Amino acid sequence: MAAVLTKCTTITEEVFLVTAELLAEKTPEARLDSGMLFPAFSDMKEVAPQLIAGICEYIIKAGLGTQPDGVTDWLEYVKVQMFKPPEGTASRL
């Protein structure tokens, strides 16, 4: 999604590394201590927008994409752009 939002021209190895680092930062210490590398799937709705926003910021800083006009807060922009299933269809998330 970050690549689409920024019209990223190239997804480099560094983009993947930054993504992994950002994801690791979102993993609670308790999960890391128990050997888990990623946040719980049940936390996806909270973690995904933060992760995507961070990737967007990196892509722009690295000169790999363009920032949409008027976007100053990537997290809010990502939240607005994300798909929201109709009420009741994704109750398990």
UniProtKB/TrEMBL annotation:
Signal peptide: none annotated. It holds the Pfam family Malic_M. It comes from the Eukaryota. SUPFAM superfamilies: NAD(P)-binding Rossmann-fold domains. Residues 2-59 form the Malic enzyme NAD-binding domain. PANTHER family: MALIC ENZYME, MALIC ENZYME-RELATED. This is Malic enzyme NAD-binding domain-containing protein.
